[in-house]
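ARCHIVE CARD
Drawer: 12
Card no.: 0347
Subject: one protein chain, sequence and derived structure
Cross-reference: see card 0346
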Amino acid sequence: QVQLVESGGGLVQAGGSLRLSCAASGSILSINPMGWYRQAPGKQRELVATITSDGVTNYADAVKGRFTISRDNAKRTVYLQMNSLKPEDTAVYYCHGTVKTTTFLPPSNYWGQGTQVTVSS
């Protein structure tokens, strides 16, 4: 059983910073890519950022220059450093990983339970 567990959400004023973490556990051969998505009330879940095991990153235009994604492959952990936060960044942030658990099957998508990020104006 694979689990992704997020931490680090909370309430912050506009212009502030938060750091999210997501640790993967279970029977895992590889996780590639790992990433963060978010869902605001009444909106669809959207991509925030992804990172491959080689460190190649991809960001949504809305967060470029403010957010930084990183990962520690040995710890199976992905991070999201969020700076210059805006009220429109308020959402539930979900960790995602494309996980390979066996050599015989293709990888599967796994999601964390979500962590709330609220940015006050």
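Annotation on reverse: The mean pLDDT is 97. The CA atoms of residues 28 and 101 lie 5 Å apart.
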